[in-house]
Amino acid sequence: MQGKLMEVDLGDEVRARNQAMTEKAARRLLGEVDGVDADNPDGRRAKKPRLGRDGKPWRPRNRRNSDDIKRDQLVEEILRENRLDVYDVPKTQQPQYEGDGDADDRIAEEFRREFMDAMVQRQQKKKTAAAPARAGARKADEEVLKGPKLGGSRNARAAMRDLLLKKEKEKESRR
């Protein structure tokens, strides 16, 4: 039995289908196309796909059906039940004004409140930006180190920088 393939009988139905497909392929090669295809049992040819502006086949939009909507509602309900209020900022109560003349006052008050909040935020940003106290010392270092960046290794440039800074400090201490 070594080196030989065993033939397995799949039945009369499979044998008949294989013969029909073989005959159909032979007819197709000879140019005798049968009107009825196994792919289309109703006898019509397959439609050509509609092409879009880019020349590619048109694809239908993924529309959401009722099952998708129900699933999303269920998910939203579960998320709403399990939501943590850690990140929610409590909304400030807006005073309710009535009448036409009060609308101007209300708008002016809202603008004033927003402007003051923005001003406080700008002041906080300025305080955090002004935190580095060595800004003056840094400028003095830059004045000493003015000039072109010469070649050499990083260590050699760092050694030269340290040497220049040390000389400058000695000059300042003599004065």
Automatic annotation (TrEMBL):
InterPro entries listed in its UniProt record: Tls1-like
Biased composition (Basic and acidic residues): 159-175
Top-rank lineage group of the source organism: Eukaryota
Annotated stretches, region: Disordered: 28-72, 122-175
Regions annotated as coiled coil: none
Gene Ontology CC annotation, any one: spliceosomal complex
GO BP annotations listed: mRNA splicing, via spliceosome
Record keywords: Nucleus
Subcellular location: Nucleus
Family designation: Belongs to the TLS1 family.
Descriptive protein name: mRNA splicing factor RNA helicase
